[in-house]
Amino acid sequence: MSKNVKRTLLGLAAVVILVGLALPKLPSGGNGGEVGAAGEAGPGDPGALTVDVHVVQPVLLRDRTLAVGSLIANEVVDLRSEASGRLVEIGFTEGSPVSEGDLLARINDRDLQAQRSRLESRKRLVEQREARQTRLVEEGGVSQEDLDATRSEREVLEAELEMVEAELEKTQVRAPFDGVVGLRRVSPGSYISPETSITTVQVLDPLRLQFSIPARYSGRVAEGDPVRFRVEGEEADGEGVVYVVDPAVQEGTRTLALRARTPNPDGRFRPGAFATVDVIFDEVDDALTVPSVAVRPQVEGQQVFVYRDGEAQAVPVETGIRTRSSVQITEGLQSGDSVITTGFHQLQPGVPVAVAEVSEGLPAEEPAEDDVLEEPVQGEVPSAPAGGGSR
Q1: What is the pTM of this model?
Q2: What are phi and psi of 219, to 5 degrees?
């Protein structure tokens, strides 16, 4: 056999071996029993579309917005003396309650006290002379002109006494209302003036809560509306009632300023504390909500797909309060319905579906601004239906 023939036979043998090695890797002509396309069922239900559902249940729904604010005293005053002089008396203990009119501080007033004593003595002499002259005028011993001069002198002394009394009042610092006195900023013996701050007096029960909300909510808040707030470091929330709404919107921030009052009988809240405020516009005790993605807009309205008897059924609905995560359904659904939340690109009324995952209750995300705070209604939350949420 020639060398060329041998080369040819060896080449053919190599080709046959390579083809034999490659044949097991080629796909077989059958289906394989499972379709890997996303959104379709496995071997047990090859024609159904796999979807997730949300089981509708009643929740406590609050339509609200979040804001930031601060607590301030219901009344607060920075106590200062109206006169200048040496501080000779301090009549309060820091952090203690005081009553209206209590003497809290006094400036040296010896010169004014001396002036008052001198004027009072002169006034007594003039009054005695006036009494004698009044009797003598009736007897004709003194002229009416002399009596009038004495009376005028008495009136001048009375006016001078009033001026001294007014100056004496300026040397005394008294509590303007019932409250709690703050830290002392001066010491006895120091020279003070009207610019010197002595201490503060604050009313701590109730407190005022000051905050602002976006101007777009201006038509949804009014006096008497409830608010909730949380202060850092406090486990329990506080509650208040709006008592004033600023009539004007702040031009720089386009926000609306509000103030609410909150009771503080135990003093657990302090003025100046930062607060996260929950402004409640509306409240529904047993609202039915679904994830926002489940509501599909249509020409004639809005609808959701509900899982019933193994199929997807389109249900027209009416919506209410809308948040970033959920939508209130006011008409069209009832408690226990299983609303489809995935597969919308292939979803049509009557399409067979298989449930892959069932969710119920509230959205997992934390409440954010413009969201509502939803809480399950105790004793009214149904369990998920058997069989993947079907009814």
Answers
A1: 0.60
A2: -85, 0
* Alpha-carbon span 112 to 168, nearest angstrom: 6
Whole-number Å distance between alpha carbons of 26 and 18: 13
Q: Which class does domain 66-74+204-282 fall in?
A: mainly beta
User: So where are the chain's domains?
Assistant: 49-63+284-376, 66-74+204-282, 83-197
User: Cα angle vertex 328, ends 324, 331, to 5°?
Assistant: 150
CATH code: domain 49-63+284-376 is 2.40.420.20
Q: In a structure prediction context, what are the per-residue pLDDT tens digits for the chain, which is 391 residues long?
A: 555 555 665 666 665 555 555 444 433 333 333 333 333 343 345 678 999 999 999 988 878 888 999 999 999 999 999 999 999 999 999 999 999 999 999 999 999 999 999 999 999 999 999 988 888 887 777 888 888 899 999 999 999 999 999 999 999 999 999 999 999 999 999 999 999 999 999 999 999 999 999 998 888 888 988 899 999 888 888 999 999 999 999 888 899 999 999 999 988 899 999 999 988 888 888 889 999 899 999 888 999 999 998 999 999 999 988 877 889 899 999 999 999 999 888 888 999 999 888 887 655 433 444 444 343 333 333 333 333 433 3
